[in-house]
Every structure is written in structure tokens, then in C-alpha cells.
Design brief:
The chain is 33% helix and 26% strand. The chain contains 6 helices and 7 strands.
């Protein structure tokens, strides 16, 4: 089997490497726009499929399997993607401050005879983040390319006392789910 990760995310790549899974990287470039009336779950699953499918269409060799994933942060049924600027990051960080939110990752495996899309949801609890710490965090730059404007494995770890569910999901890829999908399709 030749596994292709349809993502340029260094976090996803590192998680797969640490799980001792061999893969190559071919990032997909699809629009990540929420459709009117689309639920967060449907959005994450659709993007995972679209990312995997974009790469699978050009890599249909026997034994090739494409892994697509998309992680979103959901607060009160609102999807928080990557912030567009510092103001947007500030808005997101204030939304998650002092409360719990969901992190959803749609995961898709595509190959000959394989079309498997699943979702992992993790609940993340965040303490109240002081205003100055939000400003310092934004100035640091860490939140700018992260869904929900934070990295659980980075500076933001100090604000997260509890996670209900898969920690790796919050980093960007639910490794146990991916491993289980690969095993279910007898790819390992």
C-alpha cells in the first residue's frame, strides 16, 4: 500500500510519523468554504472527502490510498476556521475563553474499492484567558494558522485543563481513528 496524505499540515505529518506510518505528502488545494445550512459535521466530512478525492483523481494506481482530513473548531454551532487576521484571532480566542467547545476532524480514506469517511469529536475545556494573555498570544503568532486560533500542543496548553476525547484530534489528526480505518480495510 502507498499512503498519500492530502495535507501540507506539519502537525498531521508529525503525528503520522510518530505512529510509524509510512506515507508521502501531496497537498490538495480546495476551497474551505462553509455552504449555507451545512452542519459542522457535514462540513468537516465533506472537506476531508474533497481533499482526498482531489489527490485520488490523479493517483489511481493499485495500492494507492489517499488520506484526507479537515479539523474545525465549533462553538455554539459556529465553525471557527483559521483566523484571517489578528482581529479574527482575538474574536475566536474570546469565544473559547472560559468554556468548552468541540473540535471535529473529518477523516477520509479513498482507494480502489475504499471510500470511508468518518468523524472524530473531542470536547476541549478552556479556562478564562486574561485579555493581556490573548494579546501576547496573538503577538507571538502561534494562533494564525490554526483552526480556532490556538494550538493545544503549544502555548495554549496552559489554558486547557481538560480534554474529553482524543487529544491527537485537537492537534489535527485523530491517529487512533486513522489507524483503525487502515486496519478495517486491511491496509496494515
Amino acid at each position: 500500500m502507498h499512503l498519500i496524505l492530502a495535507s501540507s499540515s506539519p502537525r498531521r505529518q508529525e503525528l503520522l510519523r510518530r505512529a510509524n506510518l509510512e506515507f508521502t505528502v501531496q497537498p490538495s488545494d480546495i476551497p474551505e468554504d462553509l455552504r449555507p445550512g451545512e452542519s459542522p459535521r457535514d462540513f468537516a466530512e465533506r472537506l476531508a472527502f474533497e481533499k482526498a478525492n482531489a489527490i485520488f483523481q490523479t493517483n489511481r494506481a493499485d495500492g494507492t490510498v489517499v488520506l484526507g482530513a479537515d479539523t474545525i473548531v465549533v462553538v455554539d454551532n459556529e465553525v471557527l476556521g483559521k483566523p484571517t487576521n489578528a482581529t479574527d484571532a482575538r474574536r475566536m480566542l474570546k469565544m473559547i475563553s472560559g468554556r468548552a467547545h468541540q473540535v471535529m476532524t473529518g477523516v477520509c480514506l479513498l482507494g480502489k474499492g475504499i471510500h470511508d469517511v468518518r468523524l472524530e469529536t473531542t470536547v476541549v475545556h478552556v479556562i478564562r484567558i486574561p485579555e493581556q494573555e490573548i494579546e501576547d498570544y496573538i503577538a507571538h503568532g502561534e494562533p494564525m494558522d490554526k483552526a480556532g486560533a490556538y494550538a493545544i500542543q503549544g502555548i495554549a496548553s496552559r489554558w486547557i485543563p481538560r480534554v474529553d476525547g482524543c487529544f491527537f484530534n485537537v492537534v489535527g489528526l485523530p491517529v487512533p481513528l486513522v489507524y483503525g480505518m487502515l486496519r478495517d480495510h486491511k491496509l496494515l
